[in-house]
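Box 3.1 A note on notation
Throughout this textbook, protein chains are presented in two layers. The first layer is the amino acid sequence; the second is a token string describing backbone geometry. Keep the layers aligned when reading.
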Amino acid sequence: MGDESRGKSPRSSGTEVSRSTVTKADIVERVYQKIGFSKKESSELVELVFSSLKNTLEKGEKVKISGFGNFIVREKRERVGRNPQTGDQIKISARRVLTFRPSQVLKALLNGEDTAGLSDDDDEG
């Protein structure tokens, strides 16, 4: 699908894993091919899904996708850090960060393990 670049992970230790990037356009193309919607309808559907996810996360709510994982917005307090070049103390402002916790099923799939007996609906995180 599209122009996918392939490269090797610089952090690989021993086993090289081929990497590629799937874009929103690739997802639209897959919806178009699998479901048979028009390209415009496929694009609108994908945009609706991502818009819904963004709106939910913006409100600070957790997004749980069974068999995939959880997206969680966490509140980070203000804290003191250090400038690594000068060693000077700096104030790091409070902020919200997005974390992703993969489900047991996704973890097993990524590691080539058997997913039989794993719950699609786990509550990690």
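The beta strands are 7-8, 18-19, 63-65, 69-76, 79-82, 89-92, 95-102. The chain has three helices and seven strands.
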